[in-house]
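Section 3.1: Structural characterization of target chains.
Under the original work plan, the team committed to producing a structural model for every single-chain target entering the pipeline before any wet-lab resources were allocated. The record below documents one such target. The sequence was received from the expression subgroup and is listed exactly as submitted; it comprises 327 residues.
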Amino acid sequence: MIEQLRDTYRKLTGNTDDLRTDGGTATERTSSRFDMGPDFLRSLPFWLPPFLVMGFFVYGAIGWNFLVSLTDYNSFVPPTYSHLDFEMYTRAFSDPTFIAATKNTFVLLVVFTVFCLLVGLGLAILIDQKIRFENTFRTIYLLPMSLSFVVTAQFWLWMYNYSDGPINVIIRGIGIQNPPHWISDPSIVLGSVILALVWQFSGYAMVVYLAGLRAIPNDHFEAARVDGASTYRLYRRVVIPQLKGATISASVVLMVFGLKAFDFLYSLTGSYYPPKGSDILATMMVRQAFGSPNNTAYAAAIGIMLFLLALVVIAPYLTYQYKRGEL
């Protein structure tokens, strides 16, 4: 159907450019992205100083951290930069704690992001039905995102309380006398953490999807209805494909939130040691850096691998934006 709309658009306008899903047209670039002309030189005083400052304090710190990761720096061995090797990286891949933390990090990122997107998409579709009190519902769903990780952790610590937490009170009320230990059971603690994070951030996915739904031209819905498309086929063939940009944008932001789950886990226990079964790379890195005895070089190596993971997370978004000419 989208191809039919594109053919109709070309016949009516005589324009051979591709019709984009947001109503615009995709045009081929004919000039270089980086023009080193007079305008570029005049703009240097405005962006070059902050660029250099950020480069020194951010990327310079990352480079120094990488250098530290190549040493044997710890509580008993001072840093020596004359002999550098990748011993800390080989040590990490043979460390069962690191392997377990890496698995937990990937599970948290994938499950948390997928569930947030599904819940957010469902809420956005419901709110997009022109319901009454739309703004009120939208505010209620988005409100948890305004809370800090510390507040969210304390709230869910109360919700998961084994003795008098609301969840276990309800479970006992329906006749189950031995409800789960949501935080102290290693087999379900990661799921409990993911559920709390989904509660906090699914409202963000809802807002992104709602904006994407409102950006789809009504002509597309009307054309699909004229073609006899059912509601299911309408969303599957017309709506969902046009939410590709919203999905990629929301996924990247949610994964970045997932990488910052250290704050939530730290607030649950008040220490560098999260509940057993929920250790992730961020908590392990801080524990190695500031625990006793500390392993600074090992923590630096974990930090570099965590940084590379963050780059992998944002790479699809940057590629998508570059192809759209918005980067």
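Residues 21-25, 27-31 have pLDDT under 50 and may be disordered.
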